[in-house]
Specification:
heterodimer; A: seven-stranded mixed beta sheet; 12 helices; B: Beta-Lactamase; Beta-Lactamase; eight-stranded mixed β-barrel; five-stranded antiparallel beta sheet; 30 helices; 31 strands
Chain lengths: ~425, ~1000
């Protein structure tokens, strides 16, 4: 049913990462054959390894998310494996690159399920990619294949037909935008505009903002869209002028880090000085990195007046046990990324919101696996998840992983970048540049 | 004509085809566009309907994200350029535009919203978008507008592309047809106009009376008939014209002939012609005018009297008077005057001739003055000639006498010159050195027979001829060099060069030459001497070869080898990939072969080995002999270190093959030291030294081995060298010390003598055991001074022992002997005996009180000389003891042959006696040796006795003498003297 990879008992070997690169089918085939040859005869051993399939963007403009989420997951896995595994089972990841492309995500998923026979799918990144995989999961429902903790807040993952095969940890975009609009209105903003990605993710964010504004009886003053895959060097002046035509006093951007950064760059270039907010998927760390690099070129401060909505608290807040565990785990994380997955250079952050989220996801998975005991199966994973009604991840609030509308973490956090670090804020008054 | 016709035709066709193409393309594109638009519209409608119907649930659910996911998927399927979903209130729920919904689309959405919503149908329209594109827009109501609208846009670009390509196809087809028609028309017009043009040309030619060409236009059409009739007409005209012209030409020609003949006669006769009629000149010729000196003019019609004077007229008209026309011509001689007054005589012939205007006088006038004068001149010149001939004859006879005198004088001077030249030519021809003259350009002018001989030619002429063909110099630019030196210095001295003789053999010559100039300083030629110096050159090169080569084997010697090695090191410094290795080889036991078989065989063996080495190496490698049996090999340009190893194996294999020299089988082998890592060396000598060191290590491992030099060897060598320096200093300064090991008589329990042992304490270090420094001393030659020092010290000690014995044990009858170890090396030195004798004399010791201890190896090496020396030592009275007996290979017969008087049983056998389980081998050996000693009358001493059991055993076996720690440690001089003083020589109180 699924492949168990045995390990040499007593040896504290580092986590193995099986990497199959989707652009090299021949190499992937060779690796697969090697795996079959080398591991085939030993697959019936008692204690072993559970392999999870992760398809994410490891190349292209959105690769920062994939990299950071992967590092967080690996930090948790290494932490768990170093302590003897989850319930005796070592956790391992098999990686495939989809470059934030829905079609690639789908073929990767088919390969995970049918060729590699992974235990479960874990840590998919992005709304359009995950949205494309959902019908496939329903197709595989007979084998109880579960998608765990995707890095997306799309509401379709949280609605009824999909709740059985998807397990979410993070708050949805609707929740994020609701809290964001609440905070903006509380800060006296009445004219709110949206800049969003022209796909499911952007539409979800747009919808969240629109619906919440409707509750306040406020209109969406202007909006502009952009096509997915935009890099930081993309020119957004036309979009900026469209958004500014509505004379907004706050702008919410629903996009990826390079696109949001480029939009903020052109927005500030056009003279807009009021608040700009981003969602958690905009990867605050990489966005800040891009804008800091731009600051060095132009000498302008782009980061002041930016509000980052997050689904996890700031990793700088060491009062939380989860933050302490995360920071400790990140100090020793190895998480080697197969070189064929990184055609272009990426320098990972030592700490980041996305890797923190990945770490929390990894720890939650560890808890679920350990509850399956010594006979893990996909069905038992689902029942174990269904039994996790109040799991304490060290965030000061418990998470609920049972299927349903209130799944996962429900709080969202607002952070601003101040003095070289991210700080959590409760109110947006005084954030204005 | 042709051009105009063609252009008219073409213009017509362009107009016709253009109209046709425009019409057809317009019609067909319209039809195609219409069809395609209908098709696209139907498709767009179907898609819109399927989206609206298929996602009703989502649309009603108002989940913008879900709707967006659905329309994204639809858009990815292609064709659609945009999708917009509007809810029932008219608000856009999801769309695929970036960055915003364009104005026209917004307008349509608003339009739809305003419609009466009772019965809404799908609406299709064509919508222009910004950027010039056009889309087919379908607005599809969901649930009759209650669920909102789905708007889709389908790009019309494919329609435009299809229409465009259809028009293009049409045009291409029309163009092709047009081109074919143009080609056909061109060919047709060309066939008509070509023929018409040639007919026109033909008719022009006929008009110009040119009937030479005809018209070859032939066809059975109208043009053909026209051409035929023109041809026949032209033929008739040509016939008439030709006939007429022919007749006229004939008559004219006849007339011209008659006239021409007549005027030629008149004009060309030398005599004057005058035709006079009635006293008027009717005709005359140019000769007449010349005769009278008249200018060239026509005199016709002038009066004869006025022109020629009355006398001529008279003569002419004389016949007129006589009347009649007929009658023979009359000859008259008349004296007349020329126009310039000069008188001359003229002979006139007059004839009366009837002419057109009546009878006329035709007169021929001839000037006869010249004929008369000539006769007179001829007479005069004959007389003058006769006078001149007489005078000339006299002059000639005078000159003849003068010449005869001069010839006699010349003959005398010429004889003197010939004699002088013969003298110098003799020197030139008989000189031993070659003498030559060359022109400043380097061409040989002359050479003497000696030079021809040097160059191997039969005669100087042959030589000069050959040398002017080609330069004799082997070096091509040698001649230029010669001339250059000559031009620069005016002379050339000892100019040595290689030249080719006639036979082709190359010889060395030396040239001395100088420039020869004339009085004005202009170079006439160079002259010089040539000497054959081939023998001298050969001798020189032989000397050079000898200086750098070994005379026995012809191999390079140390000097040349070092030179090659230095070059290899330089090359390796320049080229990092250049590898080389240095090998040092020494033959094992060569000395033995040389001594036992003679130097002749030894030399042959060396030659054989050198041949083998050269055969094993490549041509680029250098094999050198350093003298004796030492060879060095330089392997250059190695690809890998294993090349050197392979070479070494091959050499050792090759050398160790037994070989037959003068009927005797000789076997030898070599030891090789190799230096592979040649990078770190500055001096070639250091490299050789390390190869030598490695060779010694190889030798130490056994015969026929090779060893690669490594760092450890280097350190060992350095260590040994330091030790050697210190040992040398220690020997020089007497820093060694002697200790004495007592030798006891087991049976009588007393001291019978000492074995002298040498001790060396290095400065600031431990005491070095003899087993370490004695081999070093032997190897470095320090053993000679060392042993001499030891022997001298032992003599002094013996003297003191003697004095002590006299004092403390007077009357001792058995001899008290001090043993001294001496190295095997000394047994090759004939001076040893004299040296020992002198040492004993200076210490005033009796030889019988001393014995030399030697190892068996002495007996093996160099048997003959060792036996001689041993015999001399025995004659002197010294005792001779074989140390460590039984461990070597010595034959028992040697004991007798060397007249040994003592043997020492090696401690290994003695130790064997006291093992827990008695070693039966040791026991048997000791027993045998004791028995042997007894049989041969030798003293037998057991060495290394350490336990009482051993002693007891020895006693039981009948061994009489022993030494070892059981009795005493080696003693210092004072302790030894104290032992003697205690009377141990008679009875040792401390005996165990």
């Amino acid at each position: 049913m699924f492949r168990l990879r045995s390990i040499i008992s007593g040896r504290n070997s580092p986590l193995k990462v099986t990497a199959l690169f989707r652009f090299r089918p021949l190499r992937a085939l060779a690796v697969a054959v090697c795996l079959l040859v080398s591991l085939g005869p030993q697959s019936a051993m008692a204690a072993g390894e559970l392999v999870f399939g992760m398809s994410a963007a490891f190349s292209g403009p959105a690769r920062g998310l994939g990299m950071e989420y992967y590092r967080g997951l690996m930090a948790a896995f290494e932490h768990i494996n170093a302590q003897g595994g989850a319930g005796g089972w070592r956790l391992a990841l098999s990686l495939r690159d989809d470059a934030y492309d829905p079609a690639a995500a789908m073929s990767n998923t088919i390969a995970f399920v049918e060729q590699e026979r992974v235990f479960a799918l874990l840590g998919y990144v992005g709304t359009p990619t995950t949205a494309r995989v959902l019908p496939l999961l329903q197709h595989y429902d007979s084998s109880s294949m579960t998608l765990l903790f995707p890095l997306t807040g799309a509401d379709m993952l949280r609605t009824q037909p999909n709740s059985a095969c998807v397990c979410n940890l993070r708050a949805s975009y609707l929740t994020e935008t609701r809290h964001l609009v609440d905070a903006l209105v509380a800060a006296g903003r009445k004219r709110i505009a949206v800049f969003h990605q022209a796909d499911v993710y952007g539409r979800n964010g747009w919808d969240g903002v629109r619906l919440r504004l409707l509750d306040y009886g406020l209109p969406l003053v202007s909006e502009a869209t952009y096509r997915r895959g935009a890099a930081f060097d993309r020119n957004f002046r036309r979009e900026v002028s469209l958004v500014l035509a509505g004379k907004p006093d706050a702008i919410i951007t629903v996009g990826t880090a390079p696109a949001c950064a480029a939009f903020v760059r052109d927005l500030r270039g056009a003279g807009f000085t009021d608040l700009v907010a981003t969602l958690s998927f905009a990867d605050a760390d990489n966005l800040a990195k891009l804008l800091q690099a731009q600051s060095r070129v132009t000498g302008r401060d782009y980061l002041t007046g930016l509000v980052f909505s997050q689904v996890v608290p700031s990793y700088e807040d060491e009062r939380l046990p989860a933050v302490r565990a995360y920071r400790q785990a990140m100090n020793s994380v190895k998480a080697p990324l197969p070189p064929q997955l990184t055609p272009d250079e990426y320098v990972p952050h030592r700490l980041s919101f996305v890797s923190f989220e990945g770490f929390l996801a990894g720890m939650a998975l560890g808890e679920a696996v350990s509850r399956m005991g010594d006979a893990p199966s996909r069905e038992r994973l689902r029942s174990a998840l269904a039994g996790l009604s109040a799991i304490d991840l060290g965030l000061g609030e418990s998470a609920d992983l049972r299927p349903g509308s209130g799944q996962g973490l429900r709080r969202t956090y607002l952070t601003v970048y101040r003095g070289g670090r991210f700080e959590g804020v409760d109110k947006l008054k005084g954030v204005t540049p | 004509m042709r051009g105009r016709l063609l252009i008219r035709m073409l213009l017509f066709m362009v107009a016709a085809f253009g109209l046709m193409a425009a019409a057809t393309s317009f019609l067909s594109s319209r039809e195609l566009k219409h069809t395609l638009e209908n098709e696209y519209k139907a498709r767009a409608l179907a898609i819109a309907r399927s989206i609206a119907d298929g996602n009703t649930e989502l649309l009603l659910g108002q989940s913008a994200g879900g709707i967006q996911a659905a329309i994204d998927q639809h858009q990815e399927m292609g064709d659609l350029s945009y999708l917009v979903v509007v809810n029932a209130r008219g608000a856009v729920v999801a769309h695929t535009f970036t960055p915003e919904v364009p104005g026209p689309v917004r307008q349509v959405i608003a339009d739809m919203q305003r419609r009466e919503s009772s019965n809404l149908q799908a609406e299709i329209r064509t919508l222009p978008l910004e950027g010039g594109s056009e889309v087919i827009h379908v607005a599809q109501p969901v649930l009759g507008g209650r669920g909102g609208f789905v708007h889709i846009g389908m790009d019309t670009e494919p329609i435009r592309r299809a229409t465009g390509s259809a028009i293009l196809r049409q045009h291409v087809l029309t163009l092709a047809a047009f081109l074919v028609c143009v080609a056909a028309a061109y060919l047709f017009i060309r066939s008509i106009t070509g023929r018409l043009a040639s007919l026109a040309v033909y008719s022009q030619q006929v008009a110009a009376h040119d009937f030479s060409t005809t018209c070859d236009v032939r066809s059975n059409d109208e043009i053909g008939a026209l051409a035929d009739s023109m041809r026949s007409m032209a033929g008739q005209i040509a016939g008439h014209v030709t006939q007429l012209e022919h007749t006229v030409a004939e008559a004219t020609l006849e007339l011209k002939g008659a006239l021409g003949a007549l005027s030629a006669i008149v004009g060309n006769i030398a005599d004057g012609l005058l035709v006079v009629q009635d006293g008027l000149i009717l005709q005359h010729n140019p000769a007449l005018l010349r005769m009278f000196g008249l200018p060239e003019a026509t005199l016709t019609g002038l009066s004869c009297v006025e022109v020629f004077g009355p006398r001529v007229c008279e003569a002419v008209s004389a016949r007129e008077d006589t009347g009649g026309v007929s009658g023979a011509a009359q000859l008259v001689e008349v004296q007349v005057n020329r126009v310039d007054g000069l008188p001359f005589t003229v002979e006139i012939t007059v004839a009366r001739v009837p002419l057109a205007g009546g009878p006329a006088s035709v007169c021929i006038l001839r000037d006869i003055t010249v004929t008369k004068q000539q006769e007179q001149e001829r007479e005069e010149s004959r007389a003058l000639l006769e006078r001149m001939v007489a005078e000339r004859t006299r002059e000639l006879s005078r000159a003849n006498t003068q010449l005869k005198i001069e010839v006699a004088e010349r003959k005398v001077v010429g004889d003197a010159l010939r004699r002088a030249e013969a003298k110098f030519r003799g020197i030139f021809e008989n000189a031993v050195e070659g003498i030559f003259q060359i022109s400043p350009e380097g061409r040989y002018i002359s050479a003497n027979p000696a030079m021809a001989f040097i160059f191997g030619y039969d005669s100087p002429e042959a030589l000069v001829a050959a040398l002017s063909q080609m330069s004799p110099y082997v070096e091509p630019l040698r001649r230029e060099a010669f001339l250059e030196v000559m031009e620069e210095h005016g002379q050339v001295q000892s100019f040595e060069s290689q030249v080719r003789r006639k036979s082709g053999r190359v010889i060395w010559i030396s040239e001395n030459a100088r420039k020869v100039v004339d009085l004005t300083g202009k170079t006439l030629h160079y002259e010089g001497f040539v000497e054959d110096i081939t023998l001298r050159k050969e001798a020189e090169s032989r000397l050079v070869h000898q200086a750098f080569h070994d005379s026995l084997t012809g191999l390079p010697n140390r000097l040349l080898f070092l030179d090659h090695l230095r070059m290899a090191m330089d090359r390796a410094r320049r080229r990092p990939d250049f590898r080389f290795a240095v090998l040092y080889m020494d033959l094992d036991r060569f000395k033995t072969i040389n001594d036992s078989m003679g130097h002749d065989i030894g030399d042959k063996l060396l030659r054989h080995v050198s041949d083998a080495l050269v055969a094993c190496g490549r041509s680029t490698d250098t094999v050198a002999r350093f003298g004796g049996d030492e060879f060095a090999i330089l392997l250059e340009d190695l690809t890998a270190p294993r090349d050197a190893i392979r070479f070494s194996r091959r050499v050792l294999d090759e050398i160790s093959k037994s070989l037959d020299l003068d009927g005797r089988e000789v076997t030898t082998s070599g030891s090789l030291g190799i230096v592979l890592h040649t990078g770190g060396y500055d001096r070639p000598e250091a490299l050789l030294r390390d190869a030598d060191t490695a060779m010694y290590h190889a030798k130490a491992l056994g015969k026929s081995r090779f060893k690669v030099f490594n760092k450890r060897m280097h350190h060992q060598a350095q260590e040994l060298m330091e030790m050697e320096i210190e040992l040398r200093r220690a020997v020089g300064q007497g820093n060694l010390s002697l200790v004495f090991q007592p030798i006891v008589d087991i049976r009588e329990r007393r001291l019978t003598g000492f074995e002298t042992l040498v001790r060396w304490k290095r400065e600031g270090a431990r005491e070095i055991p003899p087993s370490e420094f004695i081999p070093l001393a032997e190897e470095t030659g320090i053993i000679y001074p060392l042993d001499h020092w030891v022997f001298a010290q032992a003599c002094c000690a013996t003297k003191e022992f003697e004095l002590a014995l006299l004092k403390h044990s007077p009357g001792l009858e058995t001899p008290f002997v001090t043993n001294v170890n001496i190295s095997a090396k000394h047994f090759r030195n004939p001076l040893l005996v004299g040296h020992l004798e002198q040492a004993m004399q200076s210490a005033q010791v009796a030889p019988a009180a001393l014995a030399l201890e030697i190892t068996e190896s002495v007996l093996l090496d160099n048997v003959n000389s060792a036996r001689d020396i041993a015999a001399k030592l025995r004659e002197l009275g010294l005792g001779l003891c074989i140390d460590d007996f039984g461990t070597g290979y010595s034959s028992l017969s040697y004991i007798q042959r060397f007249s040994v008087d003592t043997i020492k049983i090696d401690r290994a056998f003695v130790v064997g006696l006291s093992l827990e389980e008695l070693d039966p081998g040791s026991e048997a050996i000791v027993r045998t040796l004791v028995t042997l000693g007894a049989g041969l009358g030798l003293k037998v001493v057991a060495e290394g006795v350490e336990t009482l059991e051993q002693l007891a055993f020895l006693r039981e076996l009948g061994c009489r003498y022993a030494q070892g720690y059981l009795f005493a440690q080696p003693l210092q001089m004072e302790e030894a003297l104290a032992l003697i003083a205690s009377g141990a020589a008679q009875s040792w109180k401390g005996f165990p």
